[in-house]
Specification:
Elements (H helix, E strand, L loop, with lengths): L10 E2 L11 H9 L15 E6 L1 E8 L3 E8 L3 E8 L2 E9 L1 E5 L5 E4 L4 E4 L5 E6 L4 E9 L9 E2 L5 E2 L12 E8 L1
Antiparallel strand pairs: 1-3, 2-14, 3-4, 4-11, 5-10, 5-12, 6-9, 6-11, 7-8, 7-10, 12-13
């Protein structure tokens, strides 16, 4: 059994990562995955720096098929309607409020300790609601391990990237003294 609790780093978008074809979560998984990730329990602390501009991510734990991350948003959200073609995932609101939209612009507001399950192929987008930074726990699981879980498509079937300008991605700026824990 693991005895050390992992305290994650928080990373955001930079001028170099905006528009790249590498997702923030994939970069974090490659950077922080422990050598025995597939065979041992992983302990983690839910902690993330809060952005005053943009969005950020703190990977909590991962295996080859599943990952858990804290995602934080100063404003905006995931603004382009999209789906994940090879990932089932869920968002659980930990702080703030999020308005989730479906493909016909139908919407629902979720608050603290409320969540949404998004099966692969399900179209959605979301935005923060209110002045408080949004913190969500995102849990994802690849469906077909032979294919990338990071593929997203718009309503026309075009591939899009989560950290692209069309998704309103901006350079992340963090508060010096504000964290979620």
């Amino acid at each position: 059994m693991a005895t050390k609790i992992y305290v994650p780093e928080t990373s955001g978008d930079t001028g170099e990562t905006i528009g790249s074809q590498s997702s923030a979560l994939d970069r974090e998984i490659q950077k922080h995955r422990p050598s025995d990730w597939a065979t041992k329990p992983q302990l983690f602390r839910m902690r993330s720096k809060l952005p005053k501009k943009g969005r950020a991510e703190a990977l909590l734990a991962s295996t080859d098929r599943m990952w858990i991350a804290l995602k934080t948003y100063a404003e905006g959200g995931e603004n382009t309607i999209h789906n994940h073609t090879n990932e089932d995932h869920s968002f659980i609101v930990m702080q703030g409020n999020a308005r989730f939209y479906g493909p016909d612009d139908e919407s629902v507001v979720l608050g603290r300790n409320e969540g949404i399950m998004l099966p692969r192929g399900c179209y959605y987008r979301f935005r923060t609601e209110g002045d408080e930074p949004l913190v969500v726990m995102r849990i994802g699981c690849v469906v077909d391990a032979a294919d990338s879980p990071w593929q997203r498509s718009d309503l026309k079937g075009n591939r899009i990237y989560g950290n692209d300008h069309q998704n309103n991605t901006v350079v992340t700026e963090f508060y010096d003294d504000r964290v979620y824990e």
